[in-house]
C-alpha cells in the first residue's frame, strides 16, 4: 500500500508534499473532486501559490499583516458583547 501523501522535489531541489485523496469504492469522480478541493482549501495550498506569484516587499507584507490584524480586532471587538 502506498502512503497517503508523497514528497516530490521540484527543479530547484525544494521538497514539497502533494495533496492526494483516494477514491472510495463506487464514489463518483465529482464527489472525490469536491473532497480534493476542500482539502486543498483547508491546507491553504492555493493561498500560498497566489502569494508566491510575485515578489512582495517586506513593507507590503507588514502592511498586509497589519490590515488583517486590524480587521480581526474589529471583528472581535464587535462580537465581544454577544
Fold and architecture overview:
Helix content is 52%, strand content 10%. The mean pLDDT is 85. It is flat. With 82 residues, it is mainly α. It contains 3 helices and 2 strands, in the order E-E-H-H-H. It has helices at residues 29-43, 45-51, 58-78; strands at residues 6-9, 15-18. It has a domain at 26-82.
Descriptors for this entry?
82 residues, mainly alpha, two-stranded antiparallel ribbon, 3 helices
Write the layout of secondary structure elements.
Layout: E1 6-9, E2 15-18, H1 29-43, H2 45-51, H3 58-78
Antiparallel strand pairs: 1-2
Offer a concise description of the structure.
The chain is 52% helix and 10% strand.
Number of strands: 2
Cα distance spanning the termini: 50 Å
Dominant shape: flat
Helix content: 40-55%
Strand order of the largest sheet: 1-2
Radius of gyration: 19 Å
Annotation field: number of helices: 3
Give the amount of beta strand, in percent. Answer: 5-15%
Mean pLDDT: 85
Largest sheet features: 2 strands, antiparallel
Q: How does the helix and strand content classify structurally?
A: mainly alpha
Unreliable segments (pLDDT under 50, ≥5 consecutive)?
Answer: none
Q: State the order of secondary-structure elements, H for helix, E for strand.
A: EEHHH
